Amino acid sequence: MPRGSFAPAYLKDRLMHSAALIAVSLMMGTGLAGAADLSAFMLTPKPGRAPRINGPGAYGARPGRPFVYRIPCTGARPIRFSAKGLPATLHLDGNTGILSGKTPDKAGEYKLELRAANQQGKAVRQFKLVVGDTLALTPPMGWNDWYTHYDHVTDKLVRQAADAMIASGMADYGYQYVNIDDCWMVKPGSDNPELQGEARDADGAIRPNRRFPDMAALTAYIHARGLKAGVYTGPGPRTCAEFTGSYRHEEIDARTFAKWGFDFLKYDWCSYTEVAGGKTLADYKRPYELMGGILPKLERDIVFNLCQYGMGDVWNWGGEVGGHSWRTTGDLGLEKDTRLPGFYSIGFKNAAHPEAARPGRWNDPDYILIGSVGNAFNIQAAPSPTVLVPDEQYSYMSMWALMASPLIFSGDMNYLDEFTLNVLCNSEVIEVDQDLLGKQARIVRHTESEFVLAKAMEDGSLAVGVFNTGDKPARIQVTWDELGLDGQRRVHDVWRQKDIGHASDLLSVEVNRHGVTMVRLFPN
Ligand code: GAL
Asked: To which CATH superfamily is domain 52-131 assigned?
């Protein structure tokens, strides 16, 4: 093999793979996807039976606030958890691995050593609790109901999602937010009795609709599983789905969310246009400055997600106004693209702002729409299997991880199949997303048929995604010059979790149509 290039062994299966893939996409096209056996396309190896602690190496929180964190850990249960260096204000449940209590009153870095042991082995992981004023040191991970449940979301469905996050193993990889989107409030003028009623109580506090009988009980249910709860509102009089918004009730709504026990707020512009007064930068910032000023004063940490579709180049100021993440584009589910599926165009737009991302500040290209997922063009339709072929799904997840995007799945948690979990739950792919350096990949190359991203990692390695956006399989080469590298690198296939050779001046890979090769290049 020529110096500096390598051909991974799995490539010999490529032709067979492509033929089978065509068969699967045809089946998907005829609605038979549920019957398709996608096991032949799974890239992520099964986790070992010995414990492996996943999740980020650091976690940001404010002083003296309620705290809950379930140590993400794969391996055969039962696993026994312990921790060294635990602040006195926190408690670890040795059976579940759930840390809970309050953060220390004193700001500073608390160095913990997390341990997990079972009959097959043990794992040790350094974990820094950074008590200060920065939340979301790494991109939030979890689930949001929007693209599955739309305007028919209920308390029961949200609880089921929390249960499924544990039962499916997603929580063992770091998924932890269970986020309610629009439509939990009263809908003024609705002819549906479940959505009718007083929007606010006598004190002006927001009321959930009848599908959410007890918000505090719901967040308690989520927290008892070591997970976190998210809620949605907007600065306008009405939300996008015409439910009650927070206009002129910002403070009381934020306090209510904290009192109920929410840990995450998505703040969606929508009808704010009617009251914004104009389209200047100041008009775009105003509602987010207002809410961004209120949240840090609450008795509870609430991660603040701006949703205003990128107006006024939000990536330039979303962090300044207190946002931890901000949508850079319109809704992914509404994206129309003639040649490539919608996630590509959204991803390309989001990829243009790598300089905006850093710990506590993330570009948000919207959710991961795979598995069984609804249709944003017809929100009453029942969810159905994604039309994305396996290669596209791996590309989607790789792009999001390389862009240090929030990893928020929005498919149906009650229909998580093995293939979907194989895409969502690869510890090494997630490690790229959650890296503590907090860099978003830069665009190395973008042509009609090739897209290359490179993300600097804390340990000095470089994560690289080589995407084939052309219509047939292709060999793609990326030089060290383009990557800013020099000298020999060990090439590690991130999806397959194995070393595949060494290279000295270029990466040369065969990539399936709409597929990806994602590697990490290590100095040794
Ligand atoms: C849109 C938003 C979506 C979803 C929807 C709810 O504006 O971008 O993510 O939240 O509103 O109505």
From this structure: Immunoglobulins (2.60.40.10)
**CA nearest ligand 1 atom 11, residue:** 240
282's tokens: 């100041």
- Cβ(123)–Cβ(116) under 8 Å? yes
- Number of neighbours of residue 488 by Cβ within 10 angstroms: 17
Distance CA 365, CA 363 (A): 7
- Decide if 262 contacts 229 (C-beta within 8 A): yes
- Residue 268 Cα: closest atom of ligand 1: 7
Residue range 425-460, pLDDT digits in tens: 999 999 999 999 999 999 999 999 999 999 999 999
Domain(s) labelled CATH 2.60.40.1180 in the chain stretch across 442-523
State the pTM of this model: 0.93
- What is the tens place of the pLDDT at every residue in 349-392? 999 999 999 999 999 999 999 999 999 999 999 999 999 999 99
Average pLDDT of the chain to the nearest whole number? 93
Q: What three-state secondary structure class fits 13?
A: helix
Is the CATH number 3.90.220.20 carried by domain 141-433? no
How far is 92 from 74, CA to CA, in rounded Å? 18
Cα 147 to middle of ligand 1, angstroms: 9
Q: Which CATH architecture has domain 442-523?
A: Sandwich (2.60)
